[in-house]
Each structure stands twice: as C-alpha cells, then as structure tokens.
Amino acid sequence: MNIKIGDRVIYTTKIICLGRNYLDHAQEMKAEVPKSPVFFVKTVNTLVTNDNPIIYPKLLYDNQDYNRVDHEVELAFIISQTCKNIQADHSYEYIEGYTIFLDITARKMQISDRNINLPWYRSKNFDTFGPIGPRIIQRDNIGDPHNLDIQLKINGEKRQHSNTKYMIFKIPEILEFISKFVTLVPGDIVATGTPSGVGPIQPGDIIEAYIEQIGQITHKVVLEE
Asked: Using alpha carbons only, what angle is made at residue 101 by residues 206 and 30, rounded to the nearest 5 degrees?
C-alpha cells in the first residue's frame, strides 16, 4: 500500500507493533512484564494520515459488550532496506526515520477474545485504527530516539504523557528480535509500544498525539454511518 506521510510516499507491506513495552502500561493492563519483546501485526487498511477521521465502527458502538475503543500513542520507525537476522549493533543502518503512530484498539473486544483464548486480531484492525504522521523525520535528525517526550490529549485534556526512555526494549533490541522471525522490507512500519494512560475515545472527540522533534497529529473520531 502506498501512503503519503508528510512529503514522503512509502510503500508499506506491514505494521508490526510492540505490546507491553512500557512498565507502567503493563501494570495498568494488569499484564505480566515481558521477558522478551511481544509483537503483533496490524494490517495496512488501518492506516490513516494526519487530519483524517478515525471511524468508530457501529458494530462496536451499538453493542454494550464491545463499546470501548482506546487510544495508544507510540513512536514508530520506518524500515529503509530489506533486513533479516540483523544484529542490534547494526540496527540503525536499517531505519529511515521516525514518526507518530496511534494503535487504536477495540478494548472490550480484545479482552473478550483473549478471555476465551481467541486471537485478538480483529480488535486491532478495523479501518482507520492506525493513524500515522505528520511526517517522517530522518534518522540522523533525531539525536536520541530514546529520550523523546510523548503525549496524547483528548479534547485538550492530557491523557498520556511519558518519555521514550522508559521503553523496556529499546529500538536495537526490538529490530534484532523481530528480524529473527520476519523479513522486513523498505517502508515497513514498526511501532514501539505505548506508555500508561490509555483510555476510551468517543465519537466527536478530538485526539492530539505529540512526540518531541516529530510534531503532532490530530484526528476527529467519527461514528460510522
């Protein structure tokens, strides 16, 4: 899928996301702190760029068993060249740059599926559940990706606020681990996990997600027609 992020058009084949990569988020989800990176895949139909709406599916909104959708702000990086089985020491050679990613999650659906030992793929992959942008900042223009202020506001109220230094697994370790299992190609997106403060969004909400040195993305939540 071709997608324009700022002034850069990339062809993306997959989005790989880290789960429970901030200690405080693992604790708020009452989940075990992982001993190695936990990753899952989001599909390209989720991608939506800055200032476009996040669609709240009626399937979720009209069903009290599923009517909670959560925000999760994350630092993401873009792969620059094909890589497999790379070493952490060489990881930055394979990164083009950094951007903001929102891992929107149908939380009640995710919990319901997990409780009966089903995959929670569907809760992560509704259309527009992967906002990204507003631009890709080149790797060399970010001094230290592990020391960036990260935050998210809903209707002007701060909901998430942390720093990427609190990631449990840092980017070199993430890339080394994922590339043991998956061949990454140019344009692939890797999202590095979210800090604590995740919570529900509702139709009509305005989401503002910010990461230092990258900028801000803004999205209105709209109920599916």
From this structure: 90
pLDDT tens readout for residues 119-157: 989 999 999 999 999 999 999 999 999 999 999 999 999
**Side chain identity, residue 119:** P
Q: Which of 216, 224, 193 is nearest to 53 (CA)?
A: 224
Length of the chain equals 225
Residues 16 and 188: beta-carbon distance below 8 Å: yes
In DSSP notation, 9-28 reads EEE-S-EEEEES-BHHHHHH
Please calculate the CA angle 120-123-128 and round it to the nearest 5 degrees: 140
- Sheet of 215-223: strands edge to edge? 54-56, 215-223, 206-211, 149-154, 157-163
190: which strand partners? 16, 77
Query: What pTM value is reported for the model?
Result: 0.97
CA torsion through residues 160, 196, 187, 207, sign? negative
* Rg of the Cα atoms in the chain: 16
2-223 homologous superfamily: Fumarylacetoacetase-like, C-terminal domain (3.90.850.10)
